[in-house]
């Protein structure tokens, strides 16, 4: 059971890395911002670390439930920057990968 969880988390991590690479390629090869993404709003709510990780998870879930998928994904990544072992963030990213 633990081995399966370990491989699941590892697989999710690899998928995240691949996805991040694709985002960077898209962002840095075009001069236009990503459609629908407002970094200033996201920074005000999340990047400033004003929220606890639990609150930030709720923000990510709200973004996902409101079909703001890119914001949700970036919020989950921010959670992983603060807590690299946060299973809920990996699960959120896995949901993102599965559509």
From TrEMBL:
InterPro entries: TPR-like_helical_dom_sf
Spans through the membrane: 7-25
Keywords from the UniProt entry: Membrane, Transmembrane, Transmembrane helix
Taxonomic lineage of the native organism: Bacteria, Bacillati, Bacillota, Clostridia, Peptostreptococcales
Top-level taxon of origin: Bacteria
Keyword Transmembrane attached: yes
Name of this chain's protein: Uncharacterized protein
């Amino acid at each position: 059971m633990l081995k399966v969880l370990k491989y699941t988390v590892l697989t999710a991590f690899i998928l995240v890395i691949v996805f991040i690479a694709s985002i960077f390629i898209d962002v840095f090869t075009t001069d236009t911002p990503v459609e629908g993404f407002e970094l200033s709003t996201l920074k005000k709510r999340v990047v400033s670390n004003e929220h606890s990780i639990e609150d930030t998870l709720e923000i990510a879930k709200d973004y996902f439930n409101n079909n703001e998928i890119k914001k949700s994904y970036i919020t989950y990544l921010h959670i992983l920057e603060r807590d690299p072992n946060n299973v809920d963030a990996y699960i959120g990213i896995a949901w993102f990968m599965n559509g």
